[in-house]
Amino acid sequence: MSCGPGLFSDIGKKARDLLTRDYISDQKISVSTTTATGVAITSTATKKGGLSSGDVGTVYKYNNILVDVKVDTESKIATTLTFTEIVPSTKTIASFKLPDFNSGKIEVQYFHCHATLASAVSLNQTPTIDLSTTIGTPSFVIGAEAGYEPSSGRLTKYTAGIGVNKPDSNASIILGDKGDTIKASYIHHLDELKKTACVGEITRRFSLNENTFTVGGSYAVDSLTMVKAKLNDHGKLGALLQHEIIPKSLVTLSSEMDTKALDKTPKFGLALALKP
């Protein structure tokens, strides 16, 4: 299922990840372990703004079925069931939360060598239908997505995008927010492991006559340490340091500050992820 153009959500994903992934403003620790039967258990604790929360998750895979269950400190249970290849070249995802019985959702993804199709339906009193499709190859893709609300007969969203992928670079243009926003991004990898890269993103909001330009990058100091930074034209500067303390276990230090308001206290974040 990986020989085709990928899902619509994959367009521009590498640039988004470099500019947003691992940038945090709270304290978070997660510990993962795997039992002899193949069950993965992850416990996470988060402290944000003086408030603490946490959850315990369990992931179990049996043949082509993946079960992911999470229980948080408020006794809410989130369950995701993923079925692969029930029908050839398809993936079916069912998710719901308890005790919120209106949170159910079913998504079906179909993968072809030159196209993908994904459809999701929410299971509540006023269901919405999301549909996305892409056409192309792993190197070039054009796609669109739309959301429809049958009860009101209106489109809740529509988005279109184009992506160009090369071994050392990725470029994309996405027209979203019902045509009100256009976003263009480009990322260029500077090493074979793709740990050192530079990225640029520009967003135009037509209704506000506003442009936002962001540049960023990542640099592999060595095989265990990576630094990332980003800056936009509004003066928001973010930086992080990530180090692999032991195999598969990472500690991440992150900060963000407004260079146009240096009197404001910068935001700091700390994340520790321990895996066996």
Describe the structure.
- Keywords: Ion transport, Membrane, Porin, Transmembrane, Transmembrane beta strand, Transport.
- Its main location: membrane.
- It is found in: Membrane.
- It comes from Lactuca sativa.
- One of its GO terms (molecular function) is voltage-gated monoatomic anion channel activity.
- The protein has 276 residues and is mainly beta.
- It has a single domain (8-274), classed as Porin (Beta Barrel), CATH 2.40.160.
- The protein is built from one helix and 19 strands.
- It has one helix at 13-20, and strands spanning 27-34, 40-48, 51-62, 65-72, 77-84, 90-98, 104-112, 115-123, 129-136, 140-149, 154-166, 169-176, 181-189, 197-205, 210-220, 225-232, 236-246, 249-258, 267-274.
- It has a 19-stranded mixed barrel.
- A hairpin with a 4-residue loop joins strand 10 (140-149) and strand 11 (154-166).
- The longest helix is centred in the first third of the chain and has 8 residues, at 13-20.
- It is globular.
- The two termini are 29 Å apart.
- The mean pLDDT is 93.
